[in-house]
Amino acid sequence: MTAKRRRLPAETKARIALAAIRGEKTVSELAADYQVHPVQISNWKKQLLEGAPGLFADRRTREVGSGRERGQQKPSVEELYQQIGRLQFELEWLKKSGGRD
Question: Where are the domains of the chain?
């Protein structure tokens, strides 16, 4: 028989990670108090420490590195004009041909 995996809310994880950062109790003591594995507490602590600088980052720098734009670069103005030119050419061709392929 397998035990059902317990899921903790983000607020609880943050509270545990903050307690680990404060150092008032050891990670083992926190693990016993909250009934979670000590390695998990260490992982939450690491995530909190790595993500904390982003909370205080300048909005302009945060937007540039947002998740949507990380993998994508903004197209240059020249590339956009080229695309507009191609689309206008295709539109004119379709108008002249009557929409027939």
Answer: 10-58+75-97
Residues 6 or more apart whose Cβ sits within 8 Å of residue 21: 45, 48, 49
pLDDT at 62: 53
Alpha carbon distance 37, 46 (integer Å): 15
Q: Mark residue 23 as left, alpha or beta (left: phi above 0; alpha: psi -120 to 50; beta: remaining).
A: left
**Which pLDDT belongs to residue 5?**
84
Tell me how far the alpha carbon of residue 10 is from its chain's centroid.
15
| Distance from chain centroid for Cα 77 | 28
- The owner of tokens 């979670």 is 36
Which alpha helices (H) appear in 1-101, and where do they start and end? Answer: 10-22, 27-34, 38-55, 59-64, 67-70, 77-97
